[in-house]
Design a protein that fits this description.
Chains A, B: It holds the Pfam family TetR_C_40. Chains A, B: One of its GO terms (molecular function) is DNA-binding transcription factor activity. Chains A, B: Keywords: DNA-binding, Transcription, Transcription regulation. Chains A, B: This is TetR family transcriptional regulator. The structure is a homodimer of 218-residue chains. Chain A has 218 residues and is mainly alpha-helical. Chain A has 2 domains: 48 residues, Arc Repressor Mutant, subunit A, CATH 1.10.10; 142 residues, Tetracycline Repressor, domain 2. Chain A is built from 11 helices and no strands. In chain A, helix 5 packs across helix 6 and helix 10 runs antiparallel to helix 11. Chain A starts with a helix and ends in an 18-residue tail after the last helix. The interface between A and B is medium-sized, with 32 and 33 residues.
């Protein structure tokens, strides 16, 4: 019994933290970052004291909330691309699936856009995965026009963010077509021949929502 | 005398508004958007009551501050490019000068980055000018690979924002070299042949600060 107790406490602590993170994600998505901590704990259905067991400030919780959402989606992308050998196709598929996220999971998308520029240079979430894929494609001789990985990553993350903003601003626009066109343009910019870039962006895509053990907050 | 009075009052009102806008730009650049209105009026050296003669809320002032800064810079870019016939070169020069703004005028740059994604779809400032230049280059047969102006603009504004973020995050990086490389990549993506894109980005640039009647807040 004495050995079990810590695990039960740990599980409860993890549940409380997860509830706070989900509540924060909801607030961020609604643009209510000025919300008092008390309201977040009520939304999470946990006691006010529980908050300070996990976070020192509200900003710390918000940061955790955003990182959690992006890590979860990034991990989904990793799973969906693990059988693809061509790093250019890995980049293309991940970018195309990320572009489709905005309409499919508008709340998660708004979390991302609300913190976009800071996250673009974060060490977690989607940016480091995009960097990994771009570097692999450069090594494999697929992105022959990339002379500076940092700048290539900056353009790709910037395009991802403004594409998301555009898809929210223009609800009537075909999100899949817009995303695939931007992906194709990026591939060409990175040095993939035009016809091949087009072909890569016409491949069938898996559905991130059909993964059995998906663990995102969206 | 009666005819002169309104002009004098108008001039004073304009001065008060400009002082509030400058104070707000300083606060935004320092990330202090939670600053009380009283502190902004003290920084502007105007009475608290003056604030409400011009703005209903602090958010309205902040919005005006950002738009003012970008309009001023955009207008400078217009002046500097008015003698250039090739719309691809107009786009290139404006993008190259915008990239150099972050180090030269870090305060204005931070105003821009702090509100970046929302401004990217704004009807004022730099985005509509970039759209105008892209559309002109498409019409002139210079940007032959642009199939959707909205998406081309989204990628360009996204690249401009993440480039600015990168230049703040990496103070040791050569801002001119990084900016010109991104500009060259965008030109190639828009359909300008690689050698020509490179040549366009090596042209000498005018200095925005030498304009006699420059009216930015930076």
């Amino acid at each position: 019994m004495a050995e079990q107790a810590p695990n039960r406490v740990d599980r409860r602590k993890a549940r409380t933290r997860a509830a706070l993170v989900r509540a924060a994600q909801t607030c961020i998505a609604e643009g209510r970052t000025a919300v008092p901590i008390l309201e977040i704990t009520q939304l999470a259905d946990v006691g006010m004291g529980s908050f300070y067991n996990h976070f020192e400030t509200k900003e710390q919780l918000f940061q955790a909330a955003v990182e959690d959402a992006l890590e979860a989606f990034g991990s989904t992308l990793d799973t969906l691309t693990e059988d693809i050998d061509d790093p250019a196709e890995v980049f293309a598929q991940s970018f195309r699936l990320t572009g489709r996220l905005h309409r499919k999971h508008p709340e998660l998308s708004l979390v991302l856009l609300h913190n976009g520029l800071a996250l673009a240079s974060s060490g977690q979430g989607l940016a480091p995965r995009a960097r990994r894929d771009i570097e692999a494609a450069v090594r494999a001789g697929r992105f022959i026009a990339v002379r500076d990985t940092d700048l290539a990553l900056a353009v790709a993350t910037g395009a991802a963010l403004t594409l998301g903003r555009l898809l929210h601003d223009e609800p009537g626009r075909d999100d899949a077509a817009a995303t695939d066109l931007v992906t194709e343009d990026l591939l060409r910019m990175f040095g993939v021949p035009a016809a091949e870039a087009r072909a890569l962006c016409q491949r069938p895509l898996p559905d991130p929502d059909t993964l059995p053990e998906r663990d995102t907050a969206a």
